[in-house]
């Protein structure tokens, strides 16, 4: 969603449209970053977790360097920047990583198991075993009983989650997080 809202920002017709779309870039970061970090830690072999976790942090630094490079290419003096072009070109890495993730990442086994989707969980775990070269690992598990209510998923669960993060206890933190990603 970061890439999509960034590209849509390039087609803004006024300040308020741009502001709203950039706000949703921040919301997308807020939703995506924690999920991606927990997924990385869940699917990465133990011996590689620290490296992969740190590497994922360094991608932000690489993104900042990429942004500086495209700004220099557009106008080294930064006096006549084509902001629409910069937003589109700046979104390309996000779109590229999104496509790669969609093609190569599995759904989180923990999430699948919490939804009662045992067969899919077993398939993902077996695939992870093959990739990690660990064919002897046990793949049996028991779905925790308190997780049974989460099987429904879908729109109702998303709305419950949105009410939580935009509710009275987390509203300030949510707005601050979105704003810091926006600016």
Descriptive overview:
It is a single chain. Helix 1 (2-10) runs antiparallel to helix 2, helix 2 (15-43) packs across helix 8 and helix 3 (49-74) runs antiparallel to helix 4 (83-104). It is globular, with a radius of gyration of 20 Å. With 183 residues, it is mainly α. It has eight helices and no strands.
How many strands in all? 0
Strand content: under 5%
Low-confidence stretches: none
Give the integer mean of the pLDDT values. 83
How many strands, what sense, and barrel or not for the largest sheet? none
Distance between the termini: 17 Å
Structural class call reads: mainly alpha
Concise account of the structure shown:
The chain has 183 residues and is mainly α.
Lay out the secondary structure.
Layout: H1 2-10, H2 15-43, H3 49-74, H4 83-104, H5 109-114, H6 118-132, H7 154-165, H8 171-182
Tags for this model:
single chain; 183 residues; mainly alpha; 8 helices
């Amino acid at each position: 969603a970061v890439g999509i809202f960034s590209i849509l920002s390039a087609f803004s017709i006024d300040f308020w449209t741009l502001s709203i779309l950039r706000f949703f870039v921040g919301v997308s970061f807020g939703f995506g970053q924690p999920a991606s970090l927990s997924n990385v830690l869940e699917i990465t072999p133990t011996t590689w977790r620290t490296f992969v976790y740190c590497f994922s942090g360094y991608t932000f630094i690489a993104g900042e360097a990429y942004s500086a490079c495209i700004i220099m290419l557009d106008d080294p003096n930064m006096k006549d920047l084509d902001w629409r072009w910069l937003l589109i070109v700046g979104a390309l890495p996000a779109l590229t990583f999104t496509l790669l993730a969609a093609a190569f990442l599995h759904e989180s086994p923990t999430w699948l198991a919490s939804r009662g989707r045992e067969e899919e969980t077993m398939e993902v775990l077996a695939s992870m075993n093959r990739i990690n070269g660990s064919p002897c690992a046990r793949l049996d598990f028991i779905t925790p009983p308190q997780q049974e209510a989460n099987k429904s998923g879908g729109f109702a669960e998303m709305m419950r989650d949105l009410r939580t993060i935009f509710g009275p206890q987390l509203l300030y933190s949510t707005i601050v997080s979105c704003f810091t990603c926006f600016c």
